[in-house]
Amino acid sequence: MTALLSVENVSKTFSFRSGWFGPLTTLDALCDVTLSVAPGETLAVVGESGCGKTTLGRSIVRAQPVTAGKVTYRPPGHDPVELTALDKRAMKPWRRDIRMIFQDPMSSLNPHMRVFDIVAEPLRIHRLARGQELEERVAGVLEKVGIPRDAMGRYPHAFSGGQRQRIGIARALVLDPKLVIADEAVSALDVSIQAQVLNLLEDLKDEFGLTYIFISHDLGVVNYIADRVVVMYLGHVVENAPTEALFERPRHPYTEILLEALPIADPARRMRRAKTVRGEIPYLGSRPTGCPFHTRCRFAEDRCRTEKPALRKVGETEVACHFAETLELKGAYGDAPAT
Ligand code: SF4
């Protein structure tokens, strides 16, 4: 199936000085990232803090320019659009199609604006509705996310965390987007509220015909919502697999570590699993040579320290590891099945 959006060889480097006269430091937040999302798919992007997943989301919506590579959006019934080649003005119409939901609704919603104005703002910016039509569209989308019409005049502080996230979702959906990028959209919520918001996102996906890129560090949430998972480490894609395959038969040692963090009931198995975790994530400004994961990998060999593995197909998975065919890694439900 033709991808709705594809990211090809995208890199993003930040440069900054420490102090007025300090040396210029560069930080590679994204390194040659390639992935795509099909229409109607929920693609999860996972990894620890600093792995580049939020930078990836911001690069797709052009909240920041990329250093190299391209992002192509294929709107239904329209020629493909290379978003990375557009300036701010040319990008504006496509911002209606690609919307973001953020982690912390308290900081992403303006506390001085009424809920009505928060949700109406994108319609006003894009000059899509006014007067009675504006009011009806705002009330309609709020009702779809479970916020009653008579709450439109209140301010964000009058709502719970889960309700504020619903308002953030309404603001994203009011423009009738095709692709929604949810950046840690349920991370700040209690577990029971997380489930409600995830179910809501699932329902809205069907109702609005949405495609999701779901950025998260929580593999439990990802297992629940995603069709496919991209695992990132130090700005690199290290694994890209259908959700079931990734949980049952991970191909990259870093994915195995992430799966170990999932809660499991059997304490003996938990102890066995803990033995495979090694080291801390390296400082982004001093990346390891060769395979970016070799400083923490229990399978690392000399080749891994000098030669960077390419992302390649192994079974139904894309994986960046020299030895992906032969490694025996534990899945989320126990030892990996034989290949
Ligand atoms: Fe580990 Fe080497 Fe594979 Fe990297 S290439 S994940 S260091 S075995």
From TrEMBL:
SUPFAM superfamilies: P-loop containing nucleoside triphosphate hydrolases (SSF52540). Keywords: ATP-binding, Nucleotide-binding, Transport. Its main location: membrane. The keyword Signal does not apply. Residues 5-259 form the ABC transporter domain. It comes from the Bacteria. It is a peripheral membrane protein. One of its GO terms (molecular function) is ATP binding. Gene3D superfamilies: P-loop containing nucleotide triphosphate hydrolases. It is found in: Cell inner membrane. InterPro entries: AAA+_ATPase, ABC_transp_ATP-bind, ABC_transporter-like_ATP-bd, ABC_transporter-like_CS, Oligopep_ABC_C, P-loop_NTPase. CDD domains: ABC_NikE_OppD_transporters (cd03257). NCBIfam families: oligo_HPY. Belongs to the ABC transporter superfamily. This is ATP-binding cassette domain-containing protein. It comes from Chelativorans salis.
